[in-house]
């Protein structure tokens, strides 16, 4: 006698509750119940308030700093494993610690690989994420990784602007591949910024490779942290004769005085996803990635191909 397979279940880490609710709504099932107990020293313990035995469990949590966000996801994966979940899919709209993907100087860690191993050791059987800082991070995992591209949600909006003399720009050499991919779909020119750093998050010098005079420029990057690079690039392009400068950045970390820099810059608009919660700002437009993740999760649950979700 065959036994019916339990319905999939979706649970949220605290930092991604709003996005997880939107994903669950688009998926078509209610968000699962989790409570978190806290100790006075800061230790915490998440607990599923419903059975997950035999279920495919989706755990949604972006791992932006502080490190409690990563720790919460790891604890929830471990709890699902010990509660006999059939499959445990860690959904990381933003995969944190990804900038440390190699040894760029002696005696430093490769944090991205460490995080990958921690997720697998905790019990994750699949990873779904979006716009990794470096594509090769997928190779740090021994489990399947579905690496989604935010271009799926951003390109329709950019097309709707109907910008004439459009030019796509990369704020640094490392993002040139992403910029060329956007330019291919938008049939536009490409320019690249060359920057030198004094130290992390501090730019000592920036130069522009290409012509932006009389152009409407869209800067494309995977994340915006302090917004120093973006605002410096936007102001430089306006000085070089650009008609307007916008930026598309998937993950809005927006730390330090990033909001203030954006408000004061000559950048017309910053377009981001909701992979990380943001504060309201007249210059920031948030485009939801909830439906993209829900569609992919539905395909994964039904063992269907997700290749149609990739635009680049």
Question: What can you see in these coordinates?
Answer:
The protein folds into two domains: 161 residues, Rossmann fold (3-Layer(aba) Sandwich); 137 residues, Rossmann fold (3-Layer(aba) Sandwich). The protein is 29% helix and 27% strand. The protein has eight helices and 14 strands. Strand 8, helix 5 and strand 9 form a beta-alpha-beta unit. It has 312 residues and is an alpha/beta fold. The model has no long low-confidence stretch (mean pLDDT 93). It comes from Aequorivita aquimaris. This is Ribose-phosphate pyrophosphokinase. One of its GO terms (molecular function) is kinase activity. Pfam families: Pribosyl_synth, Pribosyltran_N.
How would the blueprint of this fold be written?
Elements: E1 9-12, H1 17-27, E2 34-38, E3 44-48, E4 56-60, H2 68-82, E5 87-92, H3 111-122, E6 126-130, E7 145-148, H4 151-160, E8 166-170, H5 176-186, E9 189-199, E10 202-209, E11 216-224, H6 228-239, E12 244-252, H7 258-264, E13 269-273, E14 284-287, H8 290-301
Parallel strand pairs: 1-4, 4-5, 5-6, 6-7, 8-9, 8-11, 11-12, 12-13, 13-14
Antiparallel strand pairs: 2-3, 9-10
Helix pairs in contact: 1-8
Labels describing this entry:
312 residues; alpha/beta; Rossmann fold; 2 domains; 7-stranded mixed β-sheet; 5-stranded parallel β-sheet; 8 helices; 14 strands; 27% strand; Pribosyltran_N; EC 2.7.6.1
Largest sheet: 7 strands, mixed
Radius of gyration: 20 Å
Structural class: alpha/beta
CATH class of the largest domain: Alpha Beta
Strand order of the largest sheet: 10-9-8-11-12-13-14
| Annotated CATH architecture of the largest domain | 3-Layer(aba) Sandwich
**What coarse outline follows from CA principal-axis ratios?**
globular
Mean pLDDT: 93
Strand content: 25-35%
Estimate the helix proportion, in percent. Answer: 25-40%
Task: Tell me the distance between the termini.
Answer: 45 Å
The CATH topology of the largest domain comes to Rossmann fold
Number of strands: 14
| Number of discrete helical segments | 8
Order of helices and strands: EHEEEHEHEEHEHEEEHEHEEH
Query: In total, how many domains does the architecture comprise?
Result: 2
Which runs of at least 5 residues are low in confidence (pLDDT < 50)? none
